[in-house]
Request: fold
Amino acid sequence: ADYFLKYMTEGERARLPSNLMKPVDGLSGDEDFPKMAEGLTKRSYKSSDIDLIMGENFLRFFIEMLK
Reply:
């Protein structure tokens, strides 16, 4: 989430809650995104649910909004 901060003004960053972006162990940047799916698989999530969590919900919403 640090990459979002670089596009925000000083005032916008100052208004953010201090606990908004706590780091997640093992997820330090975009390159670690696939680790989320691996973790969900290890926790016995169904493949179809993992697909939704990893972006299909957003994609469906985005396509609907473009109609």
Remarks:
- Residues 24 and 36 are 11 Å apart (CA to CA).
- The chain has one domain: 2-66.
